[in-house]
Design a protein that fits this description.
Blueprint: E1 3-4, E2 7-11, E3 25-29, E4 33-34, E5 41-42, E6 63-68, H1 78-92, E7 96-99, H2 110-124, E8 131-132, H3 137-140, H4 153-159, E9 165-169, E10 172-176, H5 201-213, E11 219-223, H6 238-248, E12 251-256, E13 263-268, E14 271-275, E15 295-302, E16 305-312, H7 324-334, E17 339-340, E18 344-346, E19 352-361, E20 368-375, E21 381-384, E22 388-392, E23 397-406, E24 419-428, E25 431-441, E26 444-446, E27 458-462, E28 467-470, E29 482-492, E30 496-501, E31 508-513, E32 516-523, E33 526-530, E34 542-549, E35 553-558, E36 561-567, E37 579-581, E38 584-585, E39 591-592, E40 596-605, E41 627-631, E42 640-641, E43 651-654, E44 658-660
Parallel strand pairs: 2-5, 6-7, 7-8, 10-11, 11-12, 12-14, 18-26
Antiparallel strand pairs: 1-4, 2-3, 6-15, 9-10, 13-14, 15-16, 17-19, 19-23, 20-22, 20-24, 21-23, 24-25, 27-40, 27-44, 28-37, 28-43, 29-34, 29-40, 30-31, 30-37, 31-32, 32-33, 34-35, 35-36, 38-39, 40-41, 42-43
Length: about 675
Amino acid sequence: MQVFRPAVAITVMNMQKLPTVSSLIVVILLAGWMTGPVLAVQSVNTTRSSQVALNAPEEEEGFVFVVYGDRTGGSANGVTVLQQAVTETNLLDPDLVMTVGDLIQGYNTTSEWMPEMRQYKAIMSGLNCPWYPVAGNHDVYWRGPDRPEEEHENNYEAHFGPLWYDFAHKNAHFIVLYTDEADPETGIRNFGRPASQRMSDEQVAFLESALERGSEADHVLVFLHHPRWLKGGYGDDWEKVHAILKDAGNVSACFAGHIHQMRYDGTRDGIEYVSLATVGGHQNFFAPDAGWDDEFHVITVRPDALEMAAIPVGETLDVRAITGDISSDARALARIRPLFGDSIVVDEKGGSDQRLSFSLKNPTERTILVKTNPRSDDARWRFEPSSMHQRIGPGGTAVLTTRATREPLVMDDFFSAPEIDLEITLLDGVRTFDIPTSKHMVRTRIMLPPSPESGDGRLVLDGYDDAILVPHRSIDLEEGPFTLEVSLKAKTLTGSRGLVTKTEQSEYGLFTTDGRPEFWLMTGGEYLVAGPDSMTLELDEDYHIAGVWDGSEARLYVNGALVGRAAGKGPRRRNELPLVIGGDVDSNGSATRFFSGEIDDVRLSRVARYRGERFAPPDRLAIDDETVALLEFGRAYGRLHPDGSGNLAHGTATGDPFIQIPPDS
């Protein structure tokens, strides 16, 4: 029968004028026809007025529990995964933890089974809540001499608990079943043999009585090891069991393990069928995001629903563990850069054979573990050793050395310089914090020939992730006048984009902002910005853009015309970041805010080349004694773009920029 009941909303109205919260004005709103019990919705308390009504959450019965998958079938080190799962589970503070079997390795005799059992129970004793076992084949199958008829069943029940049982908790009833009973005709236990996968009359009778005991619960939840509903080698005995569960009318879910992968088989007659992966068991990790992973399920039980989530082991963070010191140390470690010794020298044929040495300094007051892997996209490099590990104490420094060799075969489009992959783990007692792997170009002197003198090549950049990075050490300008210039044609000019930059709260760069060209320079503690008041670049037009600093004034020229100037003084604030061609540079030395279009050439000079209101821009940029770097983009060697200045200021491509040569060149 439907009963008309008003919904009650308690709202704070002009509380600034009310002496106490008890003076709340209660507004009764007719909400329409409603069924079931109605709870008052209590608004939040405030001394402010607002047009937005915020209500405290409604009180609702429920609880959370966790389910662990298989621990065994893999490396003995899987117990460390189980230990981590226990640590993370305690952070969630569930009411209880269920398992789905295969707790120990088993398949042995009593003398081996007992220490495995003790190890598992010792780890699980670290839980801050009760936990409940389920027997799997690894827990009961016997291998070895003197096999008793019941195999390890007696050991299991003596040390873990009964093979089947049930209990009530709040609004739910839990039933644990046993899926490794022997074939009553032959005594064979085999989970791939249908005759050995039938539920005995004794266990069926228990199940029916357990369902009767849980008949008043909102949810009956069933736990077993083998997901017999998958049939196959399990046969079809589950059809009989499912019918019993269906008749009960309040069975909400069945949970199983064994298959070492997460799998949801949907809802049948109101019963959800769920298989778990592993917590330290054998795991292929074929596709972790698709359930091939070490994980545990977190189940939230409400009167009318179950919510399920899977959490990969190792992904739960302890809020109290992330102190200010840990956060600061992690940031410092993420910024570590190897300090290289002598440069690796590569001759014009690409040959090299010498020691590669670099040091790493631990900037923290905690111990770190470091793994370094010298590598190259060019498979013709060889490194010995190919991986190095080092433990570095607080404030300590480690020197690591490998030998880098490349046969002098040819310098071609597949050439790539060496780099170092750096992995760091921060240790804090029993806790560890992994720093994301960083990549670092090895300090290399490469004797590349200059670009062809035809001068018709153009670097094509997509505006998404294409850029050229020139290392700081190759273009380190001393204090004094300089000129930065580029010849280009733009395909897109929306937003702020870097053209040729080294700026990061320091140094200099050429930019466009919605097509407006700008020359930025950090001097005297602030940025000078030289740019036009209204002039903007046009798409698909050729431009020569030059930023000039003469020591007291920054000037910007476009196609030889002065379009902006800014006076300043004081030393230039310097950095050790790369010069980015085709984008801006961030604090990590990576390219960002990319340019879309074509670049003919780029020149950096240690002189103020242009003065006055106007000059005739050169057809092509050339080298002289004042040239620090000249990249003409006539050709590339793999990801390397040669510098024509003779200063070895070669650029390295990121993304996939390419050189376009006109057909008639």
